[in-house]
Design a protein that fits this description.
Layout (H helix, E strand, L loop, with lengths): L1 H18 L6 H13 L5 H8 L3 H11 L12 H16 L3 E2 L7 E11 L4 E6 L5 E2 L6 E4 L6 E10 L5 E2 L4 E2 L10 E5 L22 H10 L4 E6 L1 H4 L3 H7 L4 E4 L9 E6 H10 L4 H7 L8 E27 L10 E7 L4 E2 L8 E2 L2 H20 L7 E7 L7 H8 L8 E6 L11 E3 L9 H10 L3 E2 L15 H6 L4 E3 L1 E2 L8 H14 L15 H19 L13 H7 L1
Parallel strand pairs: 6-9, 9-10, 10-12, 14-17, 14-18, 18-21, 19-20
Antiparallel strand pairs: 1-13, 2-11, 2-13, 3-4, 3-13, 5-12, 6-13, 7-8, 13-17, 15-16, 19-22
Helix pairs in contact: 3-11, 4-11, 5-11, 11-16, 13-16
């Protein structure tokens, strides 16, 4: 009986579209075919709710969230707090229940802001010759992760290649070397390979991320770590490092784990001078580091650093809402949607436009999150499992809000079937393909493929696997606690344009606007693709919420053990 009524609803809807004259429009015809197929698995009420998702709703959210009045939505800053209140207000208007602390929409995230002081000094001191003092921001960036107002380092520098210990790949850059009390010099990224069984070939794994390298150095007792930045290896220029590591940087309040007194980056040219002072050749050092036989090399140079920091304990908020599930047994389980609302705030020391508005990164993701939440909230039909909507803070500070959410979820991690994340969904028009990198690591992937076909979307592999996008957005924090997670985004092919055009738009944004004040809202932005990704994600989440069993990682995946532990 349910099937008959659903078919009747779909036919009636199509008839109304035809009578409205939409059949004469090829674009409308394509859209009608896609939504008809999607209706096969969606109840009539859910399908009708999905149909209300439109570009202009997302546009208005993006316009407000990226307005100068919100001052770049800095973590722990006035503009970020205004954004959080806006998000909570929207959730309330949609009729969603608060799922934060003590019956509120806000989940308090304890943070510590660290601002390097101009009194900080940073020298390379060779065993022979004069000390070389580096210039902050131009030559290096550095933070004291111990959350102390002052720390001093006077320690030997050891080159440890890529700074990776990965037994599953038979790779160990440390070779048992005692690095306690030392400063570790290391390369960004990981050993290059085209073999998918060796560090996943061209794709970057977590071992290549700077966060892992700092964590591993601290675990081994080092007092400092220095990453050598090289644009082609990092997949972004020095200006991204500089902009992301100047001014106040936030950290989760320490809970007893070891931390570095110096967590730093240096320009490639500075590293060349450092190697020359050590009477070594940087190119040869980098070549040697690509071998499994590489062993750490102690340089005849010390790092002398006087780290002075302004330490500001504060709280920011994740904004969390929930739509309770309709199934008596399954409502205690959930599907989650996430997007980060923070950006880089205001840099008062910069001349000219110093507001990092973050229109694409990530007002777009928040606009999509809100529009999906609104559609779920007004749907006559209700999903079987509960749906959680989480706008998280401090992503730009190192995925901190989502890390805290993963450790303190409103529903136990083992009961969360899936997280769908939205981050930087470019308003470029109607997409013809979609990126869901990481979905293939889960047993949900066949349904993702089927849904993509219904929406006439080709699944595109990660356009830049070497950039390690999977480990650079909030879904990763949820994956680390075992929740099957991935981001949903457009690919590179848009209607009316070639793939080369899409790739060029991506390149231009990365080089000219990413983490720069020019990432601003423009009236000519086309949010058609953002609404398409919202509809696609709505359908995926609804399907996940109705599955008989919780979604799992594929056997052998790096997050499978965390999933098994959380259940």
């Amino acid at each position: 009986m349910m099937r008959k009524s659903l078919v009747f609803f779909t036919v009636a809807l199509l008839a109304s579209l035809v009578s409205a004259g939409l059949s004469a429009d090829p674009a409308s015809s394509e859209r009608r075919n896609a939504v008809m197929a999607a209706a096969i698995r969606l109840p009539a009420g859910a399908f009708a709710a999905m149909e209300t998702i439109i570009p202009d709703h997302i546009r208005q959210h993006v316009r407000f969230l990226s307005h100068d009045l919100l001052e770049g939505r800095g973590t722990g800053q006035r503009g970020g707090d205004i954004a959080a209140e806006y998000l909570a207000t929207q959730f309330a208007l949609y009729g969603l229940k608060p799922a934060g602390d003590n019956g509120n929409y806000m989940q308090k995230v304890p943070l510590v802001g660290i601002t390097p002081s101009p009194e900080t000094r940073f020298w390379f001191v060779p065993s022979q010759g004069s000390a070389v003092e580096l210039k902050p921001l131009d030559d290096y960036v550095a933070y004291d992760e111990t959350q102390q107002s002052q720390s001093d380092v006077d320690a030997d520098i050891i080159f440890v290649g890529y700074g990776i210990e990965a037994p599953e790949y038979n790779w160990d850059d440390y070779k048992g070397t005692d690095v306690k009390g030392k400063v570790l010099l290391m390369l960004v990224n990981e050993p290059p390979s085209d073999d998918p069984k060796f560090f996943k070939g061209p794709a970057l794994t977590y071992y290549g991320r700077w966060t892992y390298k700092y964590e591993e150095a601290a675990r081994k007792g080092a007092v400092g770590a220095i990453l050598i930045h090289k644009t082609d290896m990092a997949s972004y220029g020095w200006e991204v490092v500089r902009n992301s590591n100047s001014g106040e940087k936030s950290f989760l309040k320490l809970e007893g784990q070891p931390e570095l007194k110096v967590a730093s980056w240096i320009q490639y040219g500075v590293a060349e001078k450092l190697a020359k002072a050590a009477r070594m050749d940087l190119n040869k050092m980098m070549t040697d580091a690509r071998s499994r036989d590489f062993k750490p090399v102690e340089l005849p140079i010390k790092l002398k650093a006087h780290m002075v920091s302004k330490v500001r304990p504060f709280e920011s908020n994740n904004v969390i809402a929930m739509l309770p599930g309709s199934d008596r047994k399954l409502k205690h389980e959930a599907v989650m949607y996430t997007a980060h609302y923070d950006h880089l705030g205001i840099r008062p020391d910069m001349p000219g436009d110093n507001i990092y508005n973050g229109a694409e990164d990530n007002a777009t993701g928040c606009g999509i999150l809100l529009e999906i939440a609104r559609a779920y909230g007004q749907s006559v039909a209700k999903p079987r499992r509960s749906i959680i909507f989480a706008a998280v803070t401090a992503e730009e500070q190192g995925l901190l809000g989502s890390e805290y959410l993963g450790k303190h979820p409103p529903v136990p991690a083992g009961k969360i079937s899936l997280d769908l994340n939205y981050d930087d969904v470019k308003p470029l028009g109607a997409p013809e393909d979609v990126e869901v990198s990481g979905a293939e690591r889960t047993n949900f992937y066949p349904l993702v493929q089927a849904t993509a076909r219904e929406f006439r979307l080709t699944i595109r592999p990660d356009a830049r696997p070497e950039a390690g996008h999977y480990y650079r957005s909030d879904h990763f924090s949820l994956a680390r606690v075992g929740i099957p997670s991935f981001s949903v985004n457009e690919g590179m092919k848009f209607k009316g344009h070639s793939e080369a055009w899409g790739l060029e738009q991506d390149r231009e944004y990365t080089t000219k606007h990413y983490h720069q004040p020019s990432d601003e809202y423009r009236p000519d932005m086309d949010f058609t693709g953002d609404s398409a990704m919202a509809r696609f994600g709505f359908a995926l989440g609804w399907e996940a919420a109705g599955l008989p069993k919780l979604i799992q990682w594929q056997k052998g995946d790096e997050f499978e053990a965390a999933r098994n532990k959380s259940e």
